[in-house]
Amino acid sequence: MDTPKISKLLRLMKLLTGNVSHTIDSLSGELGITPRTVYRYIETIREAGFVVNKLYGNVYAMGKVSRGLTDFKKLIYFTDEEAYLAAKMIEGIDNNNALERDLQRKLASVYDCTSIANYIDNPANAANIEALNDAIKHKKQVVLKGYASAHSDETRDRVVEPFSFTANMIDVWAYDVEKADCRVFKVMRIHSVEATETPWAFEDKHEVKKPDVFRMTGPLSMRVVLELNTRAKGLLVEEYPLAERDLHREDGKWILRTTVQALEGVGRFVIGLAADVKVVEGKKLQEYIKKYDKKYIQKI
Residue by residue, what is the 3-state secondary structure of 182-215? Predict the structure, then answer.
């Protein structure tokens, strides 16, 4: 997309978020584009993840996600990886370009606000999302009926206190009453949500943890140091863009120093590139890899 078009899109968004109502014709005159182009730009804004409502007639305005979302920056559905990649693309614009500075500033305002804890229509999981959202609103425990766990490979009911959704309603953060810790539950793995009248009992323990660079969340918080060759470094950044922030070139080698919350993500990466990666620091990770090798690899 060329710079003039980006500029007009940003100006259109600014007009749509103002206190003055604008018709398609007035927007067309203000921006110096045809009404047809205004409609096309509005669709572009919607496709980018923003909410644009038709108020009446041909009057449009930036809207709010349902249930009272008032913070404009939360209308942008950025995951951390999306925000990071967007920032990298913006860096490609001429440093003297004022538009780049504005984009960087606006991106920074949403970079740490990637969670959208409000209801978004999702046809495939609408009923479960609605039930979870109601439980969050009224601070009630629920039963996740028939939850299929990828870690234990079992399907069973879970009593939880849901308190926050991740971006685009893919996961829900909840306090697992049985396990006594906060976990992420995949919405698509929930068969159904059973509401209860039991109020939250562990609100003081509710905590949203950012996933590690391998997109894993969990109770573990362990520092690992990996030594990678050029091939492994390229594959790492391609698969896990956020890892680039923790990568450094030292003595002709690529070194990753990061903190992981679970061993599965980093473990699978190392195992898949065993000839290209060396675990320099991380005793539990080394033990995990040895057990994995004994349990699976040696049986092949």
Answer: EEEEEHHHCCEEEEEEEECCCHHHCCCCCCCCCC
Q: What residue has token string 């950012």?
A: 210
Q: State the greatest distance between any 2 C-alpha atoms of the chain, in Å, as a whole number.
A: 71
pTM of the entire structure? 0.56
Question: Tens digit of pLDDT per residue, the chain (300 long)?
Answer: 455 677 788 888 888 876 677 899 999 998 889 999 999 888 888 777 677 888 888 888 886 544 444 444 444 555 667 667 766 766 666 555 555 556 665 555 444 433 333 334 445 577 888 899 899 989 999 999 999 987 667 899 999 999 988 765 778 999 999 999 998 898 889 999 999 999 999 999 998 888 899 988 877 889 999 999 999 999 999 889 889 999 999 998 999 999 999 899 999 999 999 999 999 999 999 999 999 888 888 776
Cross-strand bridge partners of residue 199: 140
Strands laid side by side in the 277-281 sheet? 247-250, 253-260, 222-228, 277-281
Q: What is the radius of gyration, based on Cα positions, of the chain?
A: 23
The answer to whether 183 and 171 have CB atoms below 8 angstroms apart is no
Print burial letters for 221-260: b (CB count within 10 Å at least 16), e (below 16): ebebebbbeeebbebbeeebbbbeebbeeeeeebbbebeb
Q: Chain-centre distance of CA 260, in angstroms?
A: 17
